[in-house]
Amino acid sequence: MTILDKITAQKAIEVAAAKAEASIQDLEKSEFFARKTNSLVANLSAENSTGIIAEHKRKSPSKGIINDQLSVEEVTQGYAQAGAAGLSVLTDTDFFGGNKEDLQKARIANPSTPILRKDFMIDEYQVYEAKAWGADVILLIAACLLPEQIKTLSQKAHELGLEVLLEIHDQEELDRSPLEYVDIVGVNNRNLKNFAENNVNASLILADKIPANVIKISESCISEPETINLLKSAGYRGFLIGETFMKDASPGTKLGEFIAKI
Question: Which CATH architecture has domain 3-260?
Fold first, then answer.
């Protein structure tokens, strides 16, 4: 069983427990549910955009604890002030140390900045959760979803006013993924089945394969400003980065220094 298999199996258990605790109707009564969402697509498309989606990430299965000493408010506000085009907040608890409160706190602290709910989405219920917790964008990971699930979940997200980031790793995942309701295609440079690889080769290989009508971003394994310029030359408009900044005692300051070198 791969790490991704373990994560998705655990996610099914979590979703079942969450459904028993709160109905979709309960989620729809959330203070955030009726809010007008912020567009990550618009921010990434802006002429002066840094393109950086900065991530709050306490730990990962491959790296262990990265930084669990700072509040989510401090980290995300620091990112926004430094010039992040968007924020990514992990809500998976067992494997990444996040939770729904992190997303809610980030939302309150950054009312006008687009926020991605970073999690392993396998059920429509989670799309309603994302909306109720204050997200603007959901993540769908092709490696753990069937094509019909991608279409159903992305369509539901659009119905709720959320944008959709579909994450792929290779040509096979791109070819089998319906993109009708997908706004952004992200290439994860790290294979989620084994969390291996430490380069952006996957993004460079797939750059010309992704349809031109969606925004394309590169995720993971980005630690140098020079890499951003390489990816920009290949047509990427966004860059999801977490560990590079979270390893620092002041992630926002680190992001500002990083942007100054691009």
Answer: Alpha-Beta Barrel (3.20)
